Amino acid sequence: MSKQPAGRPRKESDRQVRDALLTAAIALFSEQGFDKVGIRHIAAKAGVSFGLIRHYFGTKDALIAATTELVLTELKKAYTEILDDIDVSDGQAYIDQLLERAITLLSPNLDLLFYLSRLASLDTDDAHNAFRTYFQIIRQDIDRLEAAGKLRVDANKVWLTFQIIFAQLGPVFLAGPIEAIIGRPAHDPDVLVARNRELASVFKFGFLAKEG
């Protein structure tokens, strides 16, 4: 029987602990914000000793930088999958498919959007740079429509991109009032379908070039 290379179990264990800390940090930062969460809370949620956060990340700021990088990586991955193989030759069908896939792929990962909403409250260079990256991820939607000749020629691509961001993060910021008014959570599947149906109408009217 061949022996496992020396050190491999430790490396796998290191990765598992680090991943557990990142997952716990994203969940807590998303729920409570950055100021209210201490590194001891994160260690407790991850089920590891407090000293391991110092070992793997050093400081809370370094941990926030690592969680932000992971959130953006996961969003890039989700958007790559959302945009994959969607036919942009029909602008209206493109928007319908885009919103439908966004529900399917982002709904199980709402922590990512809640994390971004918390990040938006930070007036720091790191937070601003992270949002620039998020902006570029979302900008792909607009660029694909433009490349296919489906975007209004007078469209302001910067503000159209922000409109998509507002549509994504608005229900996160307004989750409490939305539930109080309509009596259902903002991210209930049926609520998402109804919201996206209206968004599709707004986007088609506001974004797309007139056919013919």
TrEMBL record:
Residues in domain HTH tetR-type?
Answer: 15-75
Cite the GO molecular-function annotations of the record. Answer: DNA-binding transcription factor activity; transcription cis-regulatory region binding
Q: Does the keyword Phosphoprotein apply?
A: no
Q: Which Pfam families match?
A: TetR_N (PF00440)
PROSITE patterns according to UniProt: HTH_TETR_2
Keyword check for DNA-binding: yes
Residue ranges of the annotated DNA-binding region, renumbered to this chain: 38-57
Q: Which superkingdom heads the taxonomic lineage of this protein's source?
A: Bacteria
InterPro entries according to UniProt: Homeodomain-like_sf, HTH-type_TetR-like_transc_reg, HTH_TetR
Keyword entries, A-Z:
DNA-binding, Transcription, Transcription regulation
Q: Could you identify this protein by its name?
A: TetR/AcrR family transcriptional regulator
Q: Which organism is it from?
A: Exilibacterium tricleocarpae
